[in-house]
Specification:
Blueprint (H helix, E strand, L loop, with lengths): L1 H21 L22 E7 L6 E8 L10 E5 L7 H10 L2 E4 L2 E4 L9 E6 L8 E2 L10 H18 L8 E6 L2 H15 L5 E7 L5 H14 L5 H9 L3 H11 L4 H14 L20 H4 L16 H9 L2 H6 L29 H9 L3 E7 L7 H14 L4 E10 L2 E9 L4 E6 L6 H4 L1 H13 L7
Parallel strand pairs: 3-6, 3-8, 8-9, 9-10, 10-13
Antiparallel strand pairs: 1-2, 2-6, 2-7, 4-5, 11-12, 12-13
Helix pairs in contact: 2-10, 3-4, 4-12, 5-6, 5-7, 5-13
Length: about 450
């Protein structure tokens, strides 16, 4: 009798253990207990890998931060970076709008982190970017937009299997720079495949959308901001413009004498020490010490009172620390160090010439809300070309203007200029003083714009 009781107890215990195992929370393996040097926080962070092929040779790395308050009711935003080949985790999280930024050996709190109003998922794609990897090195030989979009979709399907509760949340995709390609093409795939999660809209920062329009806007921007002379501007207009110059030098590899001469004259006048991401900004002069570390008058708790022009180097140093990689559940595969922009990936630059106009128009027509913003000091993808392109799209789609071109505000100061169409289905905004990654040097203004977009409101009028 005693033996029978023991056997019954053992069976019950075994069943209990098995039940706990199979019903365990799959997100637990991805929990970040604490990042080295991190200040006090109340929200949850996750990081790790999702395989995107059946052979499990490609794994994409993500960092996911829940909203500071009410994560269960906040939207989910996937953030992609540009390059192509630059890290969303490195740049998006630790330089632009994540909850913390590196400051020496510690992290300081970002008072304008986008996780104040959203659950934000940062993805390093394609494999070969950041901590994402492929064990099949031949994959890196020629990656293109189609491959990146397919793998990003596979990542989302796998991620939503793990973080299942977020399937019901409003879902947005955002990105910066070449993210204009990544975001629009991934959004198009999501719409085509009709997965269980529902895409509400996309947000694009200083995006490359049309090769000729965007690159040729550089010439006018350089000239209007005094970076090149009237004579060189005339040469750009009549002999070899920026899109032709890039096409010959980077895509076909056969640069003409006319373009070569014009390019040399332009580069000499612009100067090697000019920050093209922010033509009014300084450049990083030190290879080992950030600007903020050398300024003893700065209180590291007072985030937003300065711009660390060496943020790229500070972030790179932080993410190469062994304790940081361990905390992030990250590893280096096939490379010796973490880099902000990939040194192993060979991307098909021919894809740069593929226009995103048609996909963007299709997304707008299908009811998705599109926000496009530009830092007005960005010479990499100047707002001049972006504004022109969006006006053309609005006319082609016969969208009515619901917010005429006007100023918008943050903290009672002009934060930029904006115009929206079709009750906010398409909104364009400049961020005054913003660079190529506007949340980096204009965090308050960028946050205000992002918050308004998620709430379905136009940018503030005062």
């Amino acid at each position: 009798m005693q033996i029978r009781k023991c056997m019954i107890a053992l069976i019950i215990y075994s069943f209990f253990i098995h039940t706990c195992f199979v019903s365990g929370d799959p997100t637990e393996d991805f929990v970040i207990e604490r990042l080295p040097g991190q200040p006090y926080f109340t929200f949850q962070q996750y990081a790790g890998y999702v395989y995107v092929d059946n052979a499990k040779t490609r794994a994409l790395f993500f960092y996911f931060v829940e909203a500071e308050t009410q994560p269960e009711s906040r939207p989910l935003v996937l953030w992609l970076n540009g390059g192509p080949g630059c890290s969303a985790v490195g740049s998006g999280v630790f330089i632009e709008h994540g909850p913390f930024r590196p400051e020496g050996d510690i992290l300081i709190k970002n008072e304008y982190s986008w996780n104040k109003v959203a659950n934000v998922l940062y993805l390093d794609a394609p494999a070969g970017v950041g901590f994402s990897y492929s064990t099949n090195k031949s994959y890196y030989t020629l990656v293109n937009d189609h491959m990146t979009a397919q793998d990003s979709l596979e990542f989302l399907n796998g991620w939503f299997t793990i973080f299942n509760k977020y399937k019901e949340h409003d879902f947005y995709i955002g990105g910066v720079s070449y993210g204009g390609h990544f975001v629009t093409q991934l959004a198009n795939l999501v719409v085509e495949k009709k997965p269980s999660y529902k895409l509400k809209g996309i947000a694009l920062g200083s995006p490359l959308l049309d090769f000729n329009t965007d690159l040729n806007a550089r010439d006018e921007f350089y000239w209007s901001h005094g970076l090149i002379s009237d004579n060189v501007y005339h040469l750009r207009l009549t002999v070899c413009n920026s899109s032709q110059n890039f096409r010959e030098s980077m895509i076909t590899g056969n640069i003409s004498n006319a373009c070569n001469t014009t390019s040399i004259l332009s580069l000499e006048q612009v100067g090697a020490s000019t920050n093209l991401g922010d033509v009014t900004g300084d450049i990083c002069l030190s290879s080992g010490t950030s600007q903020s570390q050398t300024d003893s008058s700065i209180n590291p708790q007072k985030f937003g009172t300065y711009v660390d022009v060496c943020a790229d180097e500070t972030t790179t140093k932080y993410l190469n620390r062994e304790d940081v990689k361990k905390a992030l559940h990250a590893k280096l595969v096939g490379v010796n160090s973490w880099e902000l922009c990939s040194g192993v990936l060979r991307y098909d630059y021919r894809d740069l010439e593929t226009p995103m106009r048609g996909i963007l128009s299709s997304l707008i027509e299908s009811g998705h809300r599109v926000l496009v913003y530009s830092g007005d000091q960005d010479a990499v993808v100047p707002f001049l070309g972006t504004r022109t392109l969006l006006n053309e799209i609005a006319k082609e789609l016969k969208l009515n203007v619901t917010t005429p071109y006007r100023t918008w505000f943050e903290g009672r100061q002009v934060a930029g200029w904006t115009q929206s169409y079709a009750d906010g289905r398409l909104t364009f905004a400049t961020i005054r003083g913003g660079d190529h990654q506007a949340p980096y040097n204009q965090p308050a203004r960028s946050f205000t714009l992002f918050e308004a977009y998620l709430a379905g409101r136009p940018p503030p009028t005062q």
